[in-house]
Amino acid sequence: IRAFLAQALDHGVFHADLHEGNLFVAAPDKVTAVDFGIIGRLGAPERRYLAEILWGFLEKDYDRVAQVHFEAGYVPAAHSPAAFAQALRAVGEQVFGRPANEISMSRVLIQLFEITALFDMKLRPELVLLQKTMMTVEGVARRICPEHDIWAAADPVVRRWMLRELSPAAKAKRFAEEGLSALRNLARLLENPPQPAVAVVEVEEAHPARWFAFGAVTAAAVFLLAVWLR
């Protein structure tokens, strides 16, 4: 369970055919996968979507799970976030509090997808492949240990991802990186300006200070943020 989630969340690439025939085990705790004929890939938005959904269910924060769907644009804004959160709660509350061997992470995702369809969410192929692989991984884990607590196994991997990617420091670092990227793009524009129509050129040439002021302010902000992060 942890190896699969680490592949999906940390690397965005996961072995999508993890049945027993593709796994070799060596004592005490080494697992080797073979036959990479089916590979799933998750982009950064899908990885955040998966992590926040699992985290939301682990923490029973259904409002946040609902908000993630709207922020990602998966559920049209015309729908009610409160109504969607209530539908998610109906799924989550019937799962938690039951014995570990009766709780299925993949079943929760299946029910989630069924609900999102009612709210006009169109499933993405990579998420369907992810859900299919989770079912296979869960089946292997259950056959090894029927009482295995899938959610407890997932918790440290999801928690690590959340702390690394969504903490205030991580958000500040991304902001700084985006600022530096904007400065590089601005520098390239100043070195090799586009050739627009004559009328536009006259307007832009009339306000050259505006470009340099913007660059100076952005550079100062990025510098201060970099000093603060250190």
Overview of the structural elements:
By secondary structure, the protein is mainly alpha-helical. It has 2 domains: 2-166, no CATH class; 168-229. It has 10 helices and 4 strands; from the N terminus they run H-E-E-E-E-H-H-H-H-H-H-H-H-H. The protein has helices spanning 2-11, 44-59, 62-71, 81-93, 105-118, 125-144, 150-166, 168-191, 198-205, 208-229; strands spanning 13-15, 23-26, 30-33, 39-41. The strands form 2 sheets. The protein has a two-stranded antiparallel sheet with strand order 1-4. Strand 2 and strand 3 form a beta hairpin. Helix 2 packs antiparallel against helix 3 (62-71), helix 4 runs antiparallel to helix 5 and helix 8 packs antiparallel against helix 10. The radius of gyration is 23 Å and the shape is globular. Mean pLDDT is 77; it is low at 200-204 and 222-228.
How many domains in all? 2
Low-confidence stretches: 200-204, 222-228
* Widest sheet, order of strands: 1-4
Share of residues in helices: 55-70%
Distance between the termini: 36 Å
State the total count of DSSP E strands.
4
Please, what is the oligomeric state? single chain
Largest sheet: 2 strands, antiparallel
Q: What percentage of amino acids are in beta strands? A: 5-15%
Task: Assign the structural class, choosing from mainly alpha, mainly beta, alpha/beta, alpha+beta, or little secondary structure.
Answer: mainly alpha
